[in-house]
Design brief:
heterotetramer, A: alpha/beta, five-stranded mixed β-sheet, B: alpha/beta, five-stranded parallel β-sheet, two-stranded antiparallel ribbon, 41% helix, globular, binds thiamine diphosphate, binds magnesium ion
Chain lengths: 329, 379, 329, 379
């Protein structure tokens, strides 16, 4: 296995699928000649040319709709949102059209598109640019949402998403692009959509997270072991919809305690749904209520040191775990 | 670019005079029309009549409480669907908004499946899941049937994009209303179509109103018409008298040839009129327009009458044959109502079918986990 | 108190506020000369004229953005969405701009707008037209969301919304417009935003709902009394954000059981957030897990009899309550 | 409508020749310029120099790691902000996109509050909550500073709508970029502006690129320029050489008078250029454009040099005075950096302030209940 960055892993997935299937093409702002605002598509235009890697004007509704229509005829567009926040100007196309077509046609139409891009805060770009809409997108039956936290998952999930016959939203993070990790070189390496991953085994409490928060959870788990000899199990959801209920319920039934960590804003965030599922299906196993940590419930704050406070970190996780386990600091 | 003269003045809904015989035959010698067989002419007439009879039957059934939701009638606009479809080639695709019965029947969908869909029956073209606004027939290259105003405009662009991508000599005809031009996504689509040489044809069905709002109150009307906005994107455009099938065919075919030969888009504006309200719910449509205005169109600009008149002139059609075609269409529609009536409703279990390809085709993918989230189901 | 319809109650609220404050005006599609697609604004154009009741083209992003900009200068636009589903073509303006302006300007700007219209399924208009996005909108700090279920609440909440200095989304229902109820005539009758209402007292279980589901809950409560002598307490949230946590927690601490009923799709619906709050803050009071009933998790189905099944009704509530209380049917 | 001759051809970024002396003074006799006092001319010069020095200082601080997020520099475009602001009246408002430092300083915001905002300090104009893209000064009728491309275009329309609604003789000047014209909401705004006679002026700052995409690759360019799309909405339009302050002022003022006297909108396209990358993150901006192209603009079309040249010609300015103004501006910028450096960061408790008016002003409303939903707070 090679050690590559999360960015490179996505790029490899894109390149391999473009190579593998003539119907796959990338479209988005600055993805071709500029090599991508975050360099995820670097080199692909040079390698595959104008047809397979397409620079689009700032018309998200236009080119997402274009991608949906093209997918009706079998193309598999991989549509980049420079920031996922920009999907809001194309919301009707992205969630209403993409989720409804198969259903309203009684199954006559498929919509095999991928919409991908970074969906994270923490980069001091302000309120309008820092949204994490995985909770909203997963609210729509007809759509799928995956949120890879590691390079290997990024590659495996991206390839699965591109081969999937339903609309899949792949939500990345600019803060993860530079992270390195081992990634299988096998071109058939696919991470099934809908499978969570136990990133750390533990018996005392289940830390359940997705995306960047998984790394926060792992960091916290290490500290918990060191400082309090607490063995936290870390579950990486990887996929929000479909959701691997079995794996997270199994963990909670073992540890009897759950702390959900996410960068979502709290109200109706992903954690709210997970919390409901756990208390509903593992009620008698719980020794404590399900706790949640989310971003501070306000629009994203520009000032770097303050935005740092706004987004969950391992210290806050530690504090909350102590609180759940009644450990004195 | 437009041949519309002040006298025919389609720009002022309701005041335009009937087309003269010269106007009517102005496009008859156009190759696509000159080469039109008698059978093809009769078929176009029959299709328009069938659309009207289908909708009249649908209206009656609606009034009998046989269906729910909306019912947007196309009556009065039939030539705008039948004309372009009659000149489409085997690789040309079509997509429209929610006023889609005319387009559906024109491409060859059956009255039975269409009526059953209105009735919400399992035998409907969308299994009862889509309703009046959401007819689809991919096998006939018809892609709906879309309820969100202008939501179909980038989809039509995408269909054409896919054809070009695959190197197929074809195009996509994407309809929208005069009210839909006010949705930004249509403009984004126009720019992309021209920038990338996409073989898409936008047909603005200007029937004078978006619900109760006259076209003049909803969109600034350039002297040359809404289609002339295409110039801002260096796109060819034209305007069409919607009551004259010859003109609709000739100008649409010119656009199709442009798409096929130059891979360039076109914007066409068809001046037409709907006789009924926006939808059946729009009972007071005579509040925002006069009875006289409606009668004016019915009497002097009805696409079926105009085409009949042309075919009688040409000796292609006789009064008897015409009556017979009408009777058969009525019959067919009545039969469709019976079919719809007798068809079963979808079982509730259908609620969870056709949501995901991966759920409906278990063998074909590696998906895992839970994908539906009801704690319990009512069925 | 006069007995009027929900529709009339909203109309009265609009008329009174237009009369009261020169800065209030209505804008939307068909609201003026056509008297409103659902006749909510009937007669207002005739009475108040072009300036106060404005017909807009089908440009939701354009006129919602216009309303936001106009509100910066003190106007109080009441923006009608013919169907709330149409807000998706204006999503960026409605949720991103409206929620961020005050924050990003450090409090220099206010955005006193109201966006109102019907947000419900059950009318056989298909998947793209039947959305209930209160959960998504309430996800945005900076926005407020109210969902009146009765004529009195519709009037009192609408007036409060128009006088509020923050963006308020008032989510109505075409299926409630015709319902009648007693409504105070007092022009100062305001229902505070953020106060839930106990629509029925009970001790055995808390049925928590909003919008049309409140009526389903009340109908079920009556049947429960009659058929099983069960006393259900029915809480009408009325406001989603702010949320009256105190009232619903008080009820659950009394009944020890909660069933959440909503027309939302389940994943990250409002019920998910309420469920989390209850198990988190009333854990030791719960004799059973919090149960939820939502719309069947699929796009809206056109066929009338099937869509009827898709949306929660009192039978389903009954079944679920029996299930929670272990009552044999 | 445009006076742009082929020779000056601003339409082809990088190939246009420098304006001749005739061109430069072509608008000097225009009343608004003829009546411009020496002080006003010096002030305009000073403002442009201050903008440039402020941004040069900001760039240095950015490179020292003093700020986060984006930094979009306006250097090269200064006349496009200073010209219109210099002819605005007391009831005219202004709003722009994220490249907003120039507009902010032009309307009179202080370098200190602006620099402090970049540093994320509590003394910043937005208390450190908005950053570079989100400057606001309602007291100076400046409404931001907007990060979502074209997101400000309906807001500017709304400002103008409110003025008309209140019977105030004023207008709103709304800036957008050449890439922003591809957002549908801009077109919706144009239609509404014309349909309802709204006194809004859209100024398209065509600097030739949207990030790394040349204007020609992002939007179909009509022979008369992007502004000519306004004709599709019957809106008056014009094109402007962005390096000539006289021309910017004259044509903007004509639009303001149209807004004030006829309550009609205008679309203006200003041909200008940014010397730096899209943002500081855009390090390789010489990949998508040549050094020669950049130098061409710096040497022959720099708005500050051109204006200085004009004022020297007119004897209004001396080389010495010019140097002095530059030195003072540098000083002021250095001082602003010191102020920003020494200012405190906002306390974390500020996270929950300015979210809701009702939360920040407890006495003024009847709201109840819980409005923030964290189970626990980190501070
Ligand atoms: C985005 C959106 N806004 C509003 C509506 C409601 N609506 C449906 S049809 C219609 C009028 C459209 O008029 P036009 O485009 O002229 O088409 P026509 O009905 O005349 O065929 C409106 C406002 C909608 N479906 N979608
Ligand atoms: C809706 C949306 N899409 C994409 C972006 C990312 N983005 C920010 S600026 C920009 C380029 C805009 O170019 P232009 O309008 O010409 O303005 P300029 O930067 O030249 O001043 C892009 C693509 C955004 N902020 N908003
Ligand atoms: Mg129409
Ligand atoms: Mg630009």
């Amino acid at each position: 296995m090679a050690v590559i960055t999360y960015r490179q892993a996505i790029k490899d997935a894109l390149a391999e699928e473009i190579q593998r299937d003539d119907n796959v093409f990338i479209i988005g702002e600055e993805v071709a000649q500029y090599n991508g605002a975050y360099k995820v598509t670097e080199g692909l235009w040079k390698r595959f040319g104008d047809k397979r890697v397409v620079d689009a004007p700032i018309s998200e509704a236009g080119f997402i709709g274009l991608g949906i229509g093209a997918s009706f005829l079998g193309l598999r567009p991989v549509i980049e949102m420079m920031f996922f926040s920009f999907v809001y100007v194309a919301w009707d196309q992205a969630v209403n059209n993409a989720s409804s077509m198969r259903y309203m046609s009684g199954g006559l139409i498929n919509c095999p598109i991928v919409i991908r891009g970074p969906a994270n805060g923490g980069t001091n770009v302000g309120a309008t640019h820092s949204h994490t809409p995985e909770n909203m997108i997963a609210n729509f039956p007809g759509l799928k949402v995956v949120v890879p936290a590691t390079p290997a998952d990024a590659k495996g999930l991206m390839k699965s998403a591109i081969r999937d016959n339903d609309p899949v939203f792949v939500m990345e993070s600019t803060l993860l692009y530079g992270n390195e990790g081992e990634v299988p070189e096998d071109e058939e390496y696919l991470v099934p959509i809908g499978s969570a991953d136990v990133k750390r085994q533990g018996s005392d409490i289940s830390l359940i997270a997705h995306g960047g928060s998984v790394l926060v959870a792992l960091e916290a788990a290490a500290k918990l072991k060191k400082e309090h000899n607490v063995d936290a199990e870390v579950i990486d959801l990887r996929s929000i919809r479909p959701l691997d209920k079995a794996t997270l319920l199994k963990s909670v039934k073992k540890t009897h305690r759950a702390l959900l960590i996410e960068e979502n804003k709290p109200f109706c965030g992903v954690g709210a749904q997970i919390s409901h599922i756990i208390q509903r299906e593992a009620f008698d196993y719980l020794d404590a209520p399900v706790h949640r940590i989310s971003a501070v419930d306000a629009p994203a704050f520009y000032s770097p040191p303050v935005e740092k406070v706004q987004i969950p970190d391992s210290q806050l996780v530690l504090r909350e775990v102590r609180n759940i386990l009644n450990i004195k600091a | 670019m437009s041949n519309l003269t002040p006298e025919t003045e389609p720009f002022s809904q309701g005041k335009s005079r009937a087309l003269s015989k010269e106007d009517l035959f102005a496009f008859a010698k156009d190759p696509i029309n000159a080469s039109m067989s008698a059978d093809a002419k009769i078929k176009a007439f029959t299709d328009m009549v069938r659309i009207r009879k289908f909708e009249q039957a649908a209206l009656q059934s609606y009034q009998k409480g046989k269906m729910g939701g909306f019912l947007h009638l196309y009556i009065g606009q039939e030539a705008t669907a039948v004309g372009p479809v009659s000149v489409m080639n085997e690789n040309d695709h079509i997509i429209t908004a929610y006023r889609d019965h005319g387009h559906a029947l024109a491409v060859g969908m059956g009255m039975n499946e269409c009526m059953a869909e209105l009735f919400g029956k399992f035998t409907g073209c969308s299994k009862g899941k889509g309703g009046s606004m959401h007819y689809f027939a991919p096998d006939k290259r018809f892609w709906g049937g879309h309820g969100i105003v202008a939501g179909q405009t980038p989809l039509g662009l995408g269909l054409a994009y896919a054809l070009k991508y695959k190197g197929i000599r074809g195009c996509a005809i994407c309809y929208l209303g005069d009210g839909a031009v006010n949705q930004g996504v249509f403009h984004e689509s126009l720019n992309l179509a021209s920038l990338w040489d996409i073989p898409v044809i936008y047909v603005i069905e200007n029937n004078g109103y978006s619900m109760g709002t006259s076209q003049m109150r909803s969109s600034v009307f350039p002297d040359a018409g809404l289609a002339s906005r295409a110039e801002g994107y260096k796109i060819e455009w034209d305007s069409i008298h919607g009551e004259n099938l010859y003109e609709v065919r000739a100008k649409t075919y010119a656009a199709i040839e442009r798409a096929h030969n130059e891979s360039r888009p076109t914007v066409l504006e068809v001046f037409t009129y709907r006789y009924y309200g926006h939808s059946i719910a729009d009972a007071n449509h005579q509040r925002y327009r006069t009875k006289e205005e409606i009668r004016h169109y019915q009497e002097r600009k009805d696409p079926i009458n105009v085409w009949e008149q042309i075919l009688l002139e040409e000796g292609v059609l006789t009064k008897e044959r015409s009556k017979e075609i009408e009777t058969l269409a009525k019959e067919e529609a009545r039969e469709a109502v019976r079919f719809a009536d007798e068809s079963p409703f979808p079982p509730p279990s259908q609620l969870l079918a056709d949501v995901y390809h991966s759920v409906d085709n278990p063998g074909t993918h590696t998906n895992q986990g839970t994908i539906f989230f009801n704690d319990q189901l009512p069925f």
